[in-house]
Amino acid sequence: MSDEHIPHDAPSRFMARALALASAHLGETSPNPTVGAVIVKEGRIIAEGWHGGPGEPHAEAMALQRAGDAARGADMYVTLEPCDHYGRTPPCSLAIIEAGVARVFYATSDPNPIASGGAARMAAAGVEVHRGLGEAEAREINRFFFHHIRTGRPYVIAKFAASLDGKIATRTGDSQWITGAEARTRAHELRRQVDAILVGVGTVIADDPRLTARDPDGGPRSHQPLRVVLDSRGRAPRTARIFSPDLPGHTLVATTPAMPAAHRAALEAQGVEVAVLPADEAGRASIPHLLAFLGRRDILSLMVEGGGDALGSFFEVGAVQEVWAFLAPLIIGGEAAPGPVRGRGPEHLAEATRLTGLTLERVGQDWLLRGKVETSA
Prior knowledge:
Blueprint: H1 10-23, E1 36-41, E2 44-50, H2 59-67, E3 75-78, H3 92-99, E4 103-106, H4 118-124, E5 128-131, H5 135-141, H6 143-151, E6 155-163, H7 181-193, E7 196-200, H8 201-207, E8 226-230, E9 251-255, H9 261-269, E10 273-276, H10 287-296, E11 301-306, H11 308-316, E12 322-328, E13 355-363, E14 366-373
Parallel strand pairs: 3-4, 4-5, 6-11, 6-12, 7-8, 7-11, 8-9, 9-10
Antiparallel strand pairs: 1-2, 1-3, 12-14, 13-14
Helix pairs in contact: 3-4
């Protein structure tokens, strides 16, 4: 098949479809990346594939199985370099070669040294290989995976809802709800994509959250992110809803040796995991140690939902990669009304956390401002 039979915009269109397939399965594949693939022949898509999670067929393998013999001489568009190792499944690079695919367009290289090398193997076998189409979009979709491979730690998203004057509650602590139902639904979309959600003990005491992820129809999701509570001294009551054994998923308490042994034993008897971490200079569970602990557990992404002390502790140690700020058209006022990020804060503006790549999205009556932390972009 020669290029003149394919419309000029077809390669971008076919890669866009592969990227859409990958995006549709965000939150389902961790600790693996999310990948989409399409097989094209004579200018039309003849098969599609996507990765469904650990142990499931890779996107390329699914597409090849669906294409059958028609894959011979066809083109493949895939969002990540086909793997070149034997893991839970055989190498996709070999499957592509054996199927007789003529050309492979992949968006970005695989950063995992264990799995990379598929492009070189395919090229050596005579497959025409092209890299870079849709690379920025592919890296954004898999930013959690890329960050974890590079650092060994989860990618951290700081999320909060505030009024226009930067308050998350009134001076009496009334906070439900600052934003509308549409914004809360949008936040649940993010919950469905991340591996873990974290709150501080103050939020548990004040709001008694469950931190569960819901599907778009409002029902509980079968796969739940890990719930993490920062509780350095064991202040959270064992009757809190987040510790209920009836909740789907799993809850972890990150604490220090200051937590009473009896409280720890009682939590563990309820099925709650307790991780005793070193304390920082303020006596709080060390955020860098917590991130390293979660990274070893193959937690690729962590959303920090609050409160202000928890968010402040992550910003203070430079552990945030991305911010989701839901802004409501409200003015609350009051010196005693709390803000979303507390802690010491910087002494000089030059030390403040700055965001780049900003996007602004209308969500019902509210606005969602998203950005990457400048040093982590």
